[in-house]
Amino acid sequence: MQNYFISHTEPRERGLREANIPFESFQMERQKGLVFEDRHLTQALAALNSQVDGEDRSPYDGIRVLRLRRGGNDANPIPSTIRVTSEGLGRGDSSLKRSFEDIAREFAPLFGVAEVVLKNNDGVGQAPRVVHDGKLYIHFWASAVEHSPISRHPVALFGVHVGADRWRFPHRLSSDPAALVIRDFAGSVVGEMIGNNIYIHYPLAAAEREGVQIFRAVVEEALALRGTPEQRAERQRQHEARLLEEVRTMPVVVDRWDASREQREKFVAVATEFAPVFGKQIHIHNYCEHSQTHYPINNGRLHICIWGSPGDTKDGGPMQATLFGAPLTSDDRSQCILKPVGEEGQLLTDEDGNQIGKMIGDTIYIHYPLGRTYLRLRWNNKGPDALFRRMLEEVVFFKTATEEQKSARARALSARYRAQSREEYIRACNGRFDKALESTQKALKNSPAEVRQLQEQLVLKIREVNGLQRKLQQMENCRPSAVEAYGKEFDKLLEVPKIREVRVRDGVIQVFTDTLYCVDTRSKKKHEIGHFRIEFNANGSVRWYNLARRVRDMQAPHVFNSGEACLGNMSEVIPELAANYEFAALAMVCIQFVESVNVDDQAGTHIDKWPVAAS
């Protein structure tokens, strides 16, 4: 860390103290002076209304002697007197160059300087660390260390897309302890500030509107880093107060709306009710005219993207006929929803596990085209704003509820559905019995006619009729015990470990599990796969649906995105258990299937891509 020594005078000591600049009294040989860290130099020069006249070595390591002269660096220079020079900006585009210079001129008084130098290092070599001379130096696509670009970078900075080729290979941070790291509001490193030098790691000068927009945000963040910890804390408090004031004065901002004004007013009214609940201003982005990529934004406000996605927009299949237990209708049943993309964030679902969107920090993605007017969406016999309200209620619950509250709600839902599901379960199992009974009755009805027409087979038919009558009587006598057995099998299914609840819908048995895990036999690491909805169909088929995540477009290491599985040596066991109504045993086998992996299999070898379970 570098320190600076200046000769002592009472006005200088008073100026540093009033500016809240940390310093120490220091005796250098026969001269009494003041010592402060180099990162406070720009602020100190502004406080003392001075300029560096020269810089000398001292007998002490880590301390340089500054000679100051009055004037030349007004404490509060006005923009008209500020000088901005630039090198290599704009690529011949004078308007772009002026945009960068205007922003520098606007912020110079806040940094306490009268001159700003903008330099485009063009990603080559190490940008120089300029001697503190009362100027502010801003280096584009540069670093304070030797040329060392990194190959990976975020897809957005300050909410602005930076995924194009020209943004590749930003520089890495230096190891200078005096460096103040500049980050965007998502936590991505953008650059660093050392003394009166700002190093921006990205080629902002090669961009157009995006580069100017990010440059302003970078300078604002650099300004916020200056000063003492107390000053930075005060700025943070002021920022938080401004955010709360936004909630009070303008709770909802519509950044984009591709729909009717009437519908907009209804959605804004719903969002206005929820802004105080979230404690944040809500920004609505309606992309229902054309689904669009919208990168996550975490700037202290809540962003709701209707029919938007954090990555490429992909077809996620048709809309569900039922959401949150209520019917959903539209004039176009072929209308698709968006498919969840990426592994970041949390899936949003209704009580039945149907995905409705995704949440990444304070950015909410709704995968249903609620704002598409011509669809005439109706949910629970109400307009799309009612479904919008219900979705926000689910977001509120997810963001605010404790794990105990989430578990309590899951238990309450399970109890509510259990009685209904038990009846549906028995009805589904009894369906095959009814078909067999109907077939027997039909055969019995046709038999006398065949006896009359086929005298030569009379004896055989009489015997067949007698046999069918006995079989019919036996089946009628067995019905009560069969129904009782089905009920017991349902109760037995609920006792299987790791099963949270069981529901039956339209003849399909749905088993909801706890979070399932699988061990990679190569690394011995335990990986979290997710919680599932496993469906047993009347035809004996089984489907697995991961309600937590998709990895490499797979529901589980051996389960494809469609829910079908590569069963391997389980291909005979699972259909046989389903055919024999042994659903408790089938559920245990299906859970074991998820928790096992064959790393020699092409699909199973990617088990290491699933998140490692928390220890």
Give a description of the structure.
With 615 residues, the protein is an alpha/beta fold. The protein has five domains: 3-70, 2-Layer Sandwich (Alpha-Beta Plaits), CATH 3.30.70; 79-227, no CATH class; 246-400, Rossmann fold (3-Layer(aba) Sandwich), CATH 3.40.50; 405-485, no CATH class; 499-609, no CATH class. The protein is built from eleven helices and 32 strands. The strands form nine sheets. Strands 6-7-8-13-12-11 form a six-stranded mixed β-sheet, covered by helices on one side. A six-stranded mixed β-sheet has the order 14-15-17-25-24-23. A hairpin with a 2-residue loop joins strand 31 (554-556) and strand 32. The two termini are 39 Å apart.
Question: What's the structural blueprint in terms of helices and strands?
Answer:
Layout: E1 3-7, H1 10-18, E2 24-28, E3 31-37, H2 41-48, E4 50-57, E5 63-70, E6 83-87, H3 94-111, E7 115-120, E8 136-140, E9 156-157, E10 160-161, E11 180-183, E12 189-194, E13 197-200, H4 209-225, H5 229-249, E14 252-257, H6 261-278, E15 282-286, E16 292-293, E17 302-306, E18 308-309, E19 315-318, E20 322-323, E21 326-329, E22 336-338, E23 346-349, E24 355-360, E25 363-366, E26 378-379, H7 384-400, H8 403-453, H9 458-494, E27 499-505, E28 508-519, E29 526-536, E30 542-546, E31 554-556, E32 559-560, H10 573-579, H11 583-594
Parallel strand pairs: 1-5, 6-7, 7-8, 8-13, 14-15, 15-17, 16-18, 17-25
Antiparallel strand pairs: 1-3, 2-3, 4-5, 9-10, 11-12, 12-13, 19-22, 20-21, 21-26, 23-24, 24-25, 27-28, 28-29, 29-30, 31-32
Helix pairs in contact: 3-4, 6-7, 8-9, 9-11
